[in-house]
Specification:
The chain is an all-alpha fold and 155 residues long. The chain has helices spanning 7-121, 148-153, and strands at 135-136, 145-146.
């Protein structure tokens, strides 16, 4: 008698089928809502990944620019140091040149003084200063031929 059902059994099963049908409809609605949300989350995820990719590209570009500017700055610092060193060297050379020029001026003044003394004493002819020919002076102190060139080169 397993196949024999009473009206009460059929009514109870019908009521249960209606409950199951309601539950299925609710489950399908929830599933549809879940699918819609999942699609939204996938879109948000794709947007976030896109932004991350853009940020990575921007970071790489900025890093490259920073490294380039950093290298340029280092090169400029090296060049500035080199230029400062060159300035110091040139200042030293200028000081040495001024000292040498001063020494040359002293030597020129000394030679001019000697020439004036020789001219004043009559031992040097004023008109023949640039002639290389030798002249002989006899004043008891020096009895050798003297030229203007030898006078200028003596110190």
């Amino acid at each position: 008698m397993t196949n024999v059902y009473t009206l009460k059994d059929i009514n109870n099963k019908g009521h249960r089928l209606a409950e199951i049908n309601d539950l299925c409809e609710k489950l399908l609605a929830k599933n549809s809502e879940y699918s819609r949300r999942e699609k939204g989350f996938h879109q948000i995820h794709a947007d976030v990944e896109n932004k991350i990719s853009q940020l990575n590209a921007s970071t790489t570009e900025i890093r490259s620019e920073f490294i380039s500017e950093w290298r340029s700055r280092i090169e400029l610092e090296v060049e500035v140091k080199s230029l400062k060193s060159n300035i110091k060297t040139l200042k030293r050379e200028a000081t040495l040149a001024q000292k040498a020029s001063s020494a040359d001026k002293v030597q020129i003044l000394s030679l001019e003084t000697k020439i004036r003394e020789l001219e004043d004493s009559g031992r040097l002819d004023n008109g023949n200063r640039n002639e290389p020919e030798r002249q002989t002076f006899d004043d008891g102190v020096r009895n050798e031929p003297v030229s203007f060139a030898t006078l200028c080169c003596e110190t």
